Amino acid sequence: MRIPRHRAALLPALVGLLTLLGLVVAPAPGASAASAGWADVTFDGSANDWSGTLRQRATGFPAATITSDSAGGSAVGRQSGSSTYLSTSTPVGDVYGSSKGRPYLNLRPYTANGSGVPGTSTTTYAFDAPTPAGGWTFVLGDVDADAVTVSATGPGGVPVDPADLGFRSVFNYCGSGTCTANDDVPSWDEAEATLTGNASATDTNGASAWFEPQVPLETLTLVFTRRAGFPVYQTWFAAQAFDLTGTVDAPAEVREGLTVRLFAPDGRVVEETTTDAEGAYRFDRLATYDGYRVALVRPTGYTSDDPLSRTVDLSTSDRVADFSLRAIVPTAVSGTVLLSDGDPVPGVTVTLTGPGGERTVVTGADGAYVIDELAVGEGYTLTATPPPGTTTSGPRTFAVPPDSEEPVEGQDFTITPQPTGTLGGTVRVEDGGTASGVRVVVTGPDGVKRVAVTDGDGRWSVDDLPPGDYTATVEPPDGATVVGDATLRATVPADGGTVRGLDFVLDAPAPPATFSASGTVVDEAGMAFRGVDVTVVDPDGEPYATVTTGEDGTWQVDDLLAGEGWTATVEPPEGYEAQDGDSLAFDVTDADTTGLDFVLVRETSTGGGGGTEPVSGGSGGGSGGSSSPALAQTGGPDLALLLLGLGATAGAVVLLRRPSTRRE
């Protein structure tokens, strides 16, 4: 097989936002997708035992360790890309630019058959950190007499769905000076995650496909299968990149040489730079992550009214993140808010009270805060508002002596996670059975209600409760009552812990007996009316259910409780009326009620030809009928067919409400 080589295209980065504390930073003016270029690759070893390194040219993109059990030979390994490459006329080259002169890999099957699968080789790229969720590509080339199965894992080793591998298209890279143009392309089976060459497994050149993964990857694995001959396939990688720039508006004496650090979403330091004489800084050709953090290191004696750390989204465009500094006016008070292990706690509100009134400030990314322009005086108090579920040390007190220009430093706070507890118990039936699906409402000292539902064993619990006094109240389901106390009290200790034994007992009586009521709706000749509504009203005068007569004119309502004063009311179709009145009264005693029949006749003042007609023959449900009344035929065979279709699909529609548990 001739060894064609193809080049990959750099994925355009996703557009993102730079945010901090609700602030939105717009994309850089004129920002557009930019390719960082095609990746560098090293590859060493011998047949069936290769290793190497993949390095994308976008700053911050994690390197990958390559392992492969490909066969050896002169055509295997790193290729220069000078004669075989992906031109800008290919779909991937149109996005990422030409790969001419950039390296790629040629790989073969596993010839020693040590894998146990004849004619296959496995190549894995293990990234040092999760990749961006977009903004990069890998290309598989010269897939004709072979097939490549692609798999990947995300953070934590979770398998990646084949749809998230980001298959874009198949193409042939020949015809741009690399090889003789031809139309051969492979086919992609997403369900099997496999790229397969032409059906005849014929050796050709340039058959390729490109992918742009849509989720972060930790590993990418390519299993190469021989279908005919001794084939080779090619891999290229490329990435997109964007720039982060900004300016620090600061006094002239400190504007130059300020330190700016850039952190990846996983916290690793990507780069560090300093501002120029104009206060400008820049980070170029950054990988397309959403979630970078850019931070300005505050010099001694200066502070800012704006955040000194911001979150940046470089997934789709260049970004601008500006900062500002001003000189601290003596006197100032400063300190840090840290966890007990020494880690900083950003975003904590520190409140100062004393001479001059109340002031607040929020800690930065390093957990530090500064409040300046303090008036001379005594009785200053500092307090830190702990994040939910934590406690803080303090308060701190201090004074500002007259004529002092010395800052008050070291006013630090320690944040400690607050202990929490669990309340739990059971809900059981008096006869000894368990009660599942029962709500228990737990109310705490803060007035917040938390709801638990019993499981199949009648058990319930509520976790993560701060220390304090609580009540637990069971809500018995309909028809059940609580035996004993419906509300119990318990206390979560100051040091947390689990409190059990909040148990409830229910007395659930047997459900009352129910009965049915039924009848018919016919004309004077006994012909059935289908599709006529009959409404049953309970002894309280409330509509209980509405049913529709079936094909045979019958209707039925179930689940009626015993009692006197029920009524059934027919709703005659247009042009008809009930011969003996449209309502029948009945009592529900200890048996089903039948014979609630209605006879419909033509209204004397209404002309013929419209409304519902009785239906002869047919069979229907005694408790249901058509979802719409039968229509009178107005002439023509089409209408007759329509009536036959409606009759074939008729069924009862019943609207029920829950029966009252009250007996008469």
TrEMBL record:
Under catalytic activity, the entry for this protein gives:
Endohydrolysis of (1->4)-alpha-D-glucosidic linkages in polysaccharides containing three or more (1->4)-alpha-linked D-glucose units
The signal peptide stretch is 1-33
Q: Which Gene Ontology MF annotations are present? A: alpha-amylase activity; carbohydrate binding
Q: Give the location in the cell.
A: Secreted
Tell me the superkingdom of the source: Bacteria
Residues spanning the membrane: 639-656
Q: Please note every region of biased composition (Gly residues).
A: 606-625
Root EC class = hydrolase
* One GO CC term on file: extracellular region
Tell me one GO biological process term. carbohydrate metabolic process
Name used for this protein in its record: alpha-amylase
